[in-house]
């Protein structure tokens, strides 16, 4: 079912008409370049393009056609936790420069594949955060991920002596899971450490993949067996970045486009991954050389 008559060929006019300000228009343009905005209805586009949530907020996208406004908004983890109904079991994190629109569009794609609501952890404010996210996000998080991978390799080779060291290389107690975390990472950690929540699937695109990996690494460092055992059953899917994950998280599928130059910058191609032929970094099905996330997810999770 195509929402509100939007198709890959005619989506641009209603999407850009939804923006009520210059900044909203820039956010729409940026999100339309990377995410499958035609998966959102015209009313959802109008609402989301003119709202701004703090980093770490959560949007809940229901499958297409379930309701007139199929995206619910929560300011933080506590608001989501206090909401009635079944607890969410799947979450998505969008990448560099994404606003509420991009976050919701990525979660809508996931919800449509699984047939269940998906939570989107807001990772930025869109165009106004693009430079800071690109520098402090994709590249800084990428460097941190490479450092974690190096530590994991050392620990594996040198045994328990190195495994007892903190990330700083001294025999100190590891930091608390929320300490020094960015808001989106902190929100993910709270979701992951909720003892009543089962997490089935985590999806990250671009910088969002690094955010998921950073949150999982923090949780693993808590050495809480029950929490780690719950997360070890979750399926993790990354798109647009091949990166390192803690060995305690075994069910990881990494996808990257064969012509994804942006993703290649922060990828470790020696790790297991699948190269998607003729695909770039973007997921918008209305643009050429897109990565068809829906079909790839269907193949990964058997939907």
Explain this structure.
This protein has 303 residues and is α/β, with parallel strands linked by helices. 42% of the residues lie in helices and 12% in strands. The protein contains 12 helices and 8 strands. An 8-stranded mixed sheet has the order 2-1-4-3-5-6-7-8. Helix 5 packs across helix 12 and helix 8 crosses helix 9. The longest helix is centred in the middle third of the chain and has 29 residues. The two termini are 17 Å apart. The N terminus is likely disordered.
Q: Which helices and strands occur, and which strands form pairs?
A:
Blueprint (H helix, E strand, L loop, with lengths): L11 H6 L4 H13 L7 H8 L8 E4 L9 E4 L2 H6 L7 E4 L6 H15 L3 E4 L8 H29 L1 H4 L19 H10 L8 E5 L1 H15 L3 H7 L3 E5 L12 E6 L3 H5 L8 E3 L16 H9 L2
Parallel strand pairs: 3-4, 3-5, 5-6, 6-7, 7-8
Antiparallel strand pairs: 1-2, 1-4
Helix pairs in contact: 5-12, 6-9, 8-9
Q: How would you describe this structure in keywords?
A:
alpha/beta, 12% strand, 12 helices, 303 residues, single chain, eight-stranded mixed β-sheet
Strand order, sheet with most strands:
2-1-4-3-5-6-7-8
Q: Terminal Cα separation, in Å?
A: 17 Å
User: What about the largest sheet?
Assistant: 8 strands, mixed
Tell me, rounded to a whole number, the average pLDDT: 79
Which stretches are low in confidence, meaning pLDDT under 50 for 5 or more residues running?
A: 1-11, 19-23, 125-137, 147-178
The percentage helix is 40-55%
How many helices? The count is 12
Alpha carbon gyration radius: 19 Å
Strand content: 5-15%
CA-based shape = globular
Structural class: alpha/beta
Let me know the number of strands. 8
H/E series, N to C?
A: HHHEEHEHEHHHEHHEEHEH
């Amino acid at each position: 079912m195509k929402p509100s008559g939007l198709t890959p060929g005619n989506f641009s006019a209603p999407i850009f008409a939804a923006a009520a300000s210059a900044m909203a228009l820039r956010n729409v343009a940026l999100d339309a370049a990377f995410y499958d905005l035609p998966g959102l209805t015209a009313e959802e586009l109008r609402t989301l393009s003119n709202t701004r949530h703090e980093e770490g907020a959560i949007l809940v996208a229901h499958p297409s056609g379930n309701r007139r406004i199929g995206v619910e908004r929560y300011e933080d983890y506590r608001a989501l936790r206090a909401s009635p109904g079944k607890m969410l079991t799947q979450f998505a994190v969008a990448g560099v420069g994404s606003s509420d629109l991009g976050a919701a569009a990525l979660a809508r794609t996931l919800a449509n594949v699984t047939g269940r609501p998906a939570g989107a952890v807001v990772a930025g404010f869109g165009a106004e955060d693009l430079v800071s996210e690109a520098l402090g996000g994709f590249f800084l998080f990428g460097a941190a991920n490479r450092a974690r991978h190096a530590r994991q390799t050392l620990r594996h080779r040198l045994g328990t002596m190195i495994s007892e060291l903190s990330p700083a290389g001294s025999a100190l107690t590891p930091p608390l899971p929320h300490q020094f975390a960015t808001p989106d990472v902190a929100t993910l950690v709270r979701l992951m450490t909720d003892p009543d929540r089962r997490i089935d699937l985590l999806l990250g695109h671009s910088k969002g993949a690094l955010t998921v990996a950073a949150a999982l690494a923090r949780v693993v460092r808590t050495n809480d067996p029950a929490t780690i055992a719950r997360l070890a059953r979750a399926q993790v899917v990354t798109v647009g970045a091949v990166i390192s994950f803690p060995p305690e998280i075994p069910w990881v599928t990494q996808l990257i486009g064969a012509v994804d130059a942006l993703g290649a910058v922060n990828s470790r191609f020696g790790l297991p991954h699948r190269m998607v032929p003729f695909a770039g970094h973007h997921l918008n099905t209305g643009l050429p050389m897109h990565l068809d996330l829906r079909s790839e997810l269907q193949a990964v999770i058997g939907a």
